[in-house]
Amino acid sequence: MLSALFIATLGALASATEVQIVGRAQTSFPPGVIATGTMGPNNPPEPTLGTAINQTSMARLLTANTVDDWCIFAPPTPEVIGNSETYEVAYCTKPRNNARLIPDGTISGVSFLKTDFYVQIIGFGDLTKINIPYGDYGGELDPHGAYGSGNPIGGNVTSNITGSDQHFTEWMLYVSYQQFCFRICTNANSTYSAEYMCWHELDEVGCQFVMPGNYNINGTFESCEADVAYPPGWYPTATVNGVPQFSTFAQRYTGTLSNGQVYTVGDTVTPPAPYFTPSSSNCVKASTIANGVPYNQLGISGSGPSVPAQTGSGAGASGPSATGSSGASQPTKSNNGAAAQGVKTEMVLVGFWAVIAALGGIVMFA
Ligand SMILES: *[C@@H]1O[C@H](CO)[C@@H](O)[C@H](O)[C@H]1NC(C)=O
Ligand SMILES: *[C@@H]1O[C@H](CO)[C@@H](O)[C@H](O)[C@H]1NC(C)=O
Ligand SMILES: *[C@@H]1O[C@H](CO)[C@@H](O)[C@H](O)[C@H]1NC(C)=O
Ligand SMILES: *[C@@H]1O[C@H](CO)[C@@H](O)[C@H](O)[C@H]1NC(C)=O
Ligand SMILES: *[C@@H]1O[C@H](CO)[C@@H](O)[C@H](O)[C@H]1NC(C)=O
Question: Region (Disordered): which ranges (predicted)?
Fold first, then answer.
């Protein structure tokens, strides 16, 4: 709560708008944004900086606060993401949350984005140092999961991006051996729910499709504000009485019912790119991020076994690759790369209308 003195100080500084914004923590949130459940069994009750480093920790509390204060999930011992989704553990850039530490020298580039609806981190690095085997194109983690209690089970996330530590319900993390992208949905309105803005059913299209942003950051560290992207797979089609209409893309999926019957859902053609990449502003660059603890001081086992690029766990963070689980035609790497480099809206639209024609049917949101 703001003290009277602090409020008086803010009043005196009324011309310094940044001070006012920084000083005001958001206290009410739209429905579906703030997590109200219990914490995962291994997690501290609240995000906590400065906890003891514990490289055998099973804690699963992620925090994403700043370009150098964040966590991601990775396997407890070397294993592909696709096999360890339910029991991955938290690795953080700083000692916090009773979690494991990401050693210095692991991360080679980060773009941290703050928007009105989410906080997003795009990162590059040698994630074999946190037990992701070389060549594992990884997969997607979220609070839903096959058991309804999250992938990993008991995984929780917080951010202080709204002015104080808050537990958020919806998030998505794509991670591979060399790249990750992580979004926590911190807001909602009647157009965008937190669940749709952190939509978790597009695990084969990769970071650049699901979380548009600046992917040309390997080797640099930046922290920016950015406009809000459309929710993953949403494409605006028209505006009716001032209300935007969207078509949505659903990933192709073939499954088997308990009676053995095979079924297929989703679209046959994957759009080549998100509708647009939101522009960013107020970027601050940093030369590196560090916690002072190098890899060789942590006493952890070292790079895991290398695995073939096609793990069957989905294309995950690094973009498409052929997997056995989908009949969809996948966008190529160069298409995804083009999106990161800022394809003009018109070009994407042309591609998209071709896609609609091919689909012959799309879901409309009223
Ligand atoms: C923690 O994660 C579990 C599993 O996803 C979820 O059921 C619970 O609501 C979360 N609690 C908080 C406070 O985030
Ligand atoms: C490290 O984490 C493991 C697993 O969560 C726990 O059993 C152990 O007590 C922790 N060690 C310390 C020193 O906290
Ligand atoms: C959020 O966390 C960062 C990094 O730990 C810290 O520097 C900053 O003061 C925190 N902001 C708020 C509003 O608590
Ligand atoms: C919800 O927020 C988005 C992004 O700022 C905006 O474009 C949209 O108009 C908002 N919807 C409503 C109903 O205010
Ligand atoms: C990121 O940069 C590092 C250091 O130059 C390099 O080893 C790594 O291969 C790059 N990652 C990607 C995905 O290009």
Answer: 304-337
Q: Are residues 12 and 53 in the same domain?
A: no
Indicate if ligand 4 lies below 6 Å from the C-beta of 261.
Answer: no
Confirm or reject: Cβ of 26 under 6 Å from ligand 2.
Answer: no
Q: Which atom of ligand 5 is nearest to the CA of 179?
A: 13
144 with 289, same domain? Answer: yes
pLDDT of residue 325: 31
Judge whether 170 lies within some domain: yes
Q: What pLDDT digit, counting tens, does each position of 204-262 carry?
A: 678 998 999 999 999 999 999 999 999 998 888 888 888 888 888 766 667 666 777 77
pTM of the model as a whole: 0.79
* Residue-number span of the structural domain to which 79 is assigned: 31-232+278-324
179 Cβ closer than 6 Å to some ligand 5 atom: yes
- Ramachandran class of 347: left when φ > 0, alpha when ψ lies in -120 to 50, beta otherwise: alpha
Q: Are both 2 and 86 inside the same structural domain?
A: no
- Classify residue 265: in a domain, yes or no: no
pLDDT band at residue 62 using 50, 70 and 90 as cut-offs: very high
How far apart are the CA of 76 and the centre of ligand 2, in A?
13
Nearest Cα residue to atom 5 of ligand 3: 69
